[in-house]
Amino acid sequence: MNPVPQNQSRRRFLLLAAAAGAAAAAGIPFYHYRLKAGASAKLGPRATPKLNSWEDLYRQRWTWDKIAKGSHGWSNCRSACAWDLYVKDGVVVREEQTATYDQSEPGVPDFNPRGCQKGACYTEVMYGPSRTSVPLKRVGPRGSGKWERISWDQAMAEIAEKCVDAAVKWGPETIYQDLGPNYDNGPTTAGRFKFQLMAGGLFADMWAEIGDLNLGALMSMGMAHVGGSSDEWFLSDFLVVWMMNPSVTQIPDAHFLYEARYNGTELVVIDPIYSATAIHADQWLPLTPGSDAALGLAVARHLFEQDAIDHAYVREQTDLPILVRMDTGRMLREADLKEGGKDNLVYLWHPQKQAPVPAPGCEGAGGISIRLDFEPPIEGSWKIKLKDGQEVLLATVGSLLKESLDPWTFERTAEVTTLSVEQIRAFADGWVKAKRPMVLSSWGSNRYLHSDLMNRTKILCLMLKGAIGRKGAGLQSTGFIDLEGFGNAMQVEKDGIRGRIGMILNLMTPKDLFDVAVDMTMKRKTENQVMREGERRFESEVICNTTVTAVDYRYQGIKEALAKEQDHLLPRPLAAYHEESTRNGWEPDFPRSGSPKIFFSGGSNLLRRNNLPQYLKANMWADMELIVDINPKFSFTGTEADYILPAAGWYEKVGIKYTMAYAPYLHYCDQAIPPLAESKDEFEIYWLLSREIERIAKARDLPVFNSCHRPTDWKTLHQRYSCEGALGPKDAERVLSDIIEQSSATKGMSLEQLKTVGAARFVATGGNVSPAYTYNPDWKGKGVLNTLIAFTEYKEPWPTFSGRLTSFIDHPWFLELGEQLPTHKPSPKAGGNYPFQFVSCHARWSIHSTWRDTPMMLRFQRGEPQVWINPADAHRIGVKDYDYAEIHNDYGSVRMRIKFSTMVRPGVAYYYHAWEPHQFPNHQSFKWLIPGLINPLHMAGGTSQLQHGISKYQAGTAVQDTRVGIRPWTGQPTGAKPVVKA
User: Fold this and answer.
1) Pairing mode of beta strands 202-205, 545-547
2) Is the preceding omega at residue 181 within 30 degrees of 0, hence cis?
3) Closest residue by Cα to residue 308 from 468, 439, 425, 461
4) From CA 108, how far away is CA 782, in angstroms rounded?
5) 3-state SS, residue 230
6) Mean pLDDT taken over the chain
């Protein structure tokens, strides 16, 4: 095909490319209004009934051909909502909320209604000007806006050829996919993941890179994702919304907060901003950004002072009774007491025996219970002799904790947080009085360099109150329901039972299976422990996994910039921690043959969201051989890609909205209409691509590759993807049916039922694998879904080094940085010493960048990127409301509109994230100013909870510590500083 370059500017790229594709796509001027009839239908005027009155026009509008059940499957929102999709003449003319949800139990409000303004106008996105419609190939330099329309056959042939060339030269692990954050639990994501797994490509987890991984929870509890259903909020008597804004980011669930308050619950909101949730609170604590840990430490101190801790719970469920050596600062271990002793067996003090005894359930003790038959002291100190005769002083973690809390008086906390002593005292007294305290702390709570310390202090307060694992109390930071069938769908290589058995044997030998059966029969391991071990085996032996942060640090060209930002904060250079971590096998170092060479962007918009993308473009991006954006919508990443493949929209393919525990229902996404124009669902796209790669591999007689952990044969790639031909390109619905049938949480559901009802309540929580750590074996679909009772009621060991809720981490790196106990560290000044802290939040009007250019949503928010500042600050620096201002720091400057708001603290510049760079002057967004600091402790490893894992534990990037200056824009040039290729 002869290239036909379109020499448009990038500013007009989205509109023109979509319009050109739409005009050519189906042979009619407006492809999304095509007739229902087949190819024999004649185009032209259609006979319509004569309209005699305005009532006839109204009645005609409110008619439809069918109603499909749907949701917004790929949308990365933490709510799931059931919608009716009204279809007329092959067009989804509107979407409407349904009210199909039941009460979980008497006295607790139901989940109705569920929905938000974004869901109510997805058709605006689906049929909007930035919709992808036909395959496009770049014919000019990346980012030039020069494209040609090509066929699917040409796209698959050329992309497959480049994939094979890269695999031969550098290995399959240089084929790179970012796992999200947009995904579903249906065949489109299963197909994407299956292709990457079968090809031996690199899975790059983005949980921590985007700042959504609660590493403080992982350190304290052994899991990063915690929380049950949102109707459990109603049962708390003291709700603390701490770094969360449900009225904006979780609209369908927010009513539970306010219904609880009407019912007598005290509602506290801790936020530097007077948020949409804070306006409803009994207490609002507008603390200095980044000072949250100080507030939590003051509360913990007050709980000790008032003797308001649950002593029995603390003894059994927490590490406060664990013994620590005062000479080394590390826990007492069996290796200290006898030759050949274990280094992971730790001790409690037995008051009757007057001697240390092994802590049941700790990593070295093993076993299936932490149940105690004595009462170990929470505080105290004793002298003992070690194996070499040396006498050492021991103290409990509780004693050390209490001593570390002593400086955190209300007065000192007031100085750090800038809250008043009276505010802090009132908040702390609320904790003392509370019977069922609950903390809501969302993914946004993880975006400071020291977020882990902040979250550890929140959890410490809950631990002392005995709240975690109790109904109506504890931590809510987003849990999931597990669908085992989804994991099966991405791994199975043969059809039917043969495929499922083969999948198990790929992961475990017959001996492994026998040993597991014996361990469980002999009650040496619990089912949950076996699941966690299997998950770790899969990640370490089968899947080729890394993190976006790890890949960026090695290849983005940011090492020097981060060293300048962070090295003065650390005992050693950041690079030294990274080198030690990779040498020890803690931090993954794939790909080992160089930087990624092939990038498939699906469910992500990496170049939009990446910190310092100017470094990425100059280095790793420029070194890639092929970049493919598979997307229902044009994105900034797509404008800098080599191929754009149009994916079917959410109403055009079957799927399952990813399974958040907040609403414990499966939300089915039906195919209301066929894919628009030439778009295809992802399962089919990767079916076609795997077939073409296999054809080329056979023609070239490629050898078997060694990818990460195992051999990978591309001559059988399509055979394995298609389950030996049992799955055709249009079999996404069959894959979805298998996912439902093979998942314990959906037992009894059927595809036919879901097409009728849309949403059905889960009947179990599924397997306890990350991030679906609910640990409630009793929940069978009835009642409020509370979590973690496997530990508090069944006494299973927590998945931590001590087997308990953890406040003390004696890993050498934590000791080196003085963070073995929760503490407060001030937010560093990333980007330079500038007067404003640049604080971000999720927007009310979009979910990431999906709705960012939707006219209906833009009308609600001034239509373009803006930064909110306090009017007093604006007056001081001489900017006016809605003026352009130059936002600048050491990395350069960008232009944004100013919005005055008294809800913002002085000294804070507040912005909503996810604006596309091409919506800014120079096509450079605020991301060009954000270095994204990396906490070296998140590269540590070697213990139960400090083990790298997908969606569990990994280094991430912190954006909330960024500092900027603001000055009036009077026409001066703005832009990022030039980047030299690394």
Assistant:
1) parallel
2) yes
3) 461
4) 12
5) helix
6) 92
- What letter does residue 620 receive in the DSSP assignment? I
- Rg (C-alpha) for the chain, rounded Å, is 28
Instruction: Determine phi and psi for 656, rounding to 5 degrees.
Output: -130, 120
Contact by Cβ (8 Å): 485, 739: yes
Q: Which residue has the tokens 């000055």?
A: 967
Supply the pTM of this predicted model: 0.93
Q: Are 270 and 278 in contact (CB under 8 A)?
A: no
Helix and strand totals (H; E) in the chain: 34, 32
Q: CA dihedral defined by 946, 947, 951, 954, rounded to 10 degrees?
A: 70
| Predicted confidence (pLDDT) per residue in 641-690, tens digit | 999 999 999 999 999 999 999 999 999 999 999 999 999 999 999 999 99
Assign 123 to helix, strand or coil: helix
Pairing of strands 437-440, 238-242: parallel
Which structure tokens are listed for 273? 């901003």
The 3-state DSSP class for residue 645 equals: strand
- As given in the structure block, the two tokens for residue 843 are 């927007």
pLDDT digits (tens, 9 = 90+) for 3-51: 333 333 333 333 333 333 333 333 222 222 222 333 333 333 344 566 6
Bridge partners (DSSP) listed for residue 675: none
Instruction: Express each pLDDT in 283-342 by its tens digit.
Output: 999 999 999 999 999 999 999 999 999 999 999 999 999 999 999 999 999 999 999 999
Report the half-sphere exposure of 677 (CA within 13 A, side-chain side).
29
Q: Which two tokens stand for residue 175?
A: 């084929």
Q: Taking CA 458 as the corner, what is the angle to CA 253 and CA 310, rounded to the nearest 5 degrees?
A: 105
Distances, alpha carbon 696 to alpha carbons 154, 159, 165, 723, in Å = 14, 11, 10, 19
Mean pLDDT over residues 255-278, rounded? Answer: 97
Return the higher-pLDDT residue of 370 and 520. 370
Average pLDDT over residues 195-201: 96
CA distances from 52 to 48, 60, 61, 426, 605 (A): 12, 12, 14, 67, 50
Decide if 120 contacts 845 (C-beta within 8 A). no
- β strands within 71-128, DSSP E: 83-88, 91-97
Query: Residue 663, Cβ neighbours under 10 Å: how many?
Result: 27
Q: Quick one: tokens of 352?
A: 């009757």
Closest of 742, 749, 790, 795 to residue 766, by C-alpha? 742
Whole-number Cα distances in Å, 916 to 849, 913, 921: 6, 9, 11
**pLDDT single digits (tens) 710-734:** 899 999 999 999 999 999 999 999 9
Is residue 171 classed as helix, strand or coil in its secondary structure?
A: coil
Q: 893: closest CA among 906, 904, 884, 905?
A: 884
Dihedral angle over CA of 185, 188, 191, 196, nearest 10: -90
Share of the chain above pLDDT 90, in %: 84
Dihedral sign computed on CA atoms, order 939, 943, 949, 953: negative
Buried b (16+ CB within 10 A) or exposed e, 66-82: eebbbbbbbbbbbbbbb
